[in-house]
Amino acid sequence: MKTAGWSTCRVAGQVDRSECAVRNCWDQWTREGTHAWKIGSGVTRKITRRDDRRIVRQALVDPTVTRSTIRADVGVAIVPQTISRHLAEANLKSKRPFRAFPLTPEHRQLRLQWCQAK
């Protein structure tokens, strides 16, 4: 489209992308002859796969462990969201304890009788 003389705005509207994305893609095409993502782009990992396994193992061994405790044990400066993300990738979800066990109809009846007796 750009080689046909279309404007960046017109191409962006046609492919449903921002003008900035079209411009960046066109610049890369004219510079390198490709539009593919560069290998290794993105943020480098702060923790290794070994650290990741350690995070998951700590959560499995002690379900009440906090993210702060895990972060201190790993020894790498990571944010708590990173720990949560790694636990979610391992299909581990936070477990909240019951505030109270649900009462059966029999329990409710006995409780009502006890209250009325007082």
From TrEMBL:
Q: Which organism is it from?
A: Trichonephila clavipes
Name the Gene Ontology biological process terms: DNA integration; DNA transposition
Q: Give GO MF terms, alphabetically.
A: DNA binding
In this record, what's one Pfam family? HTH_Tnp_Tc3_2
The gene is NCL1_13165
Domain Transposase Tc1-like: residue ranges: 52-116
Q: What is this protein called?
A: HTH_Tnp_Tc3_2 domain-containing protein
Source superkingdom: Eukaryota
